[in-house]
Design goal:
Helix content is 20%, strand content 24%. It is α+β, with helices and mostly antiparallel strands. The mean pLDDT is 79.
Length: 121
Amino acid sequence: MSAPEDTPVDALLGGELPEQLEDTPSEADATRARPRRDFSKMMRRIPVTLTLEVGAARITLADLASLQPNSVLELDSIAGEPLVMKVNGTPIGRAEVVVSGENYGLKVVELSDMDLDSLTS
């Protein structure tokens, strides 16, 4: 169900109904000041996908069609070099693969110059 285009964002984020959807707006509701939203706090809760890109190979469709189990393709990255770290497909730095318990993990080597300080305060 979509909200009307002229619905105030504060009303949607605060779980309040827009005035045109309320049964009977009271005088207290009309005079009450709506609280300001802390958008930086809300932004910190947005989920993102962090990936580590090992490398890429540019091949022809004929080469792709001839791939079989045990086929080996050379990637454009050098073995032992840090891998590209991406958030939602955008490169943000470089990292190394580590073992964390029974899972793989990553160790951040460098981060690009992003201004995320406002989201962590």
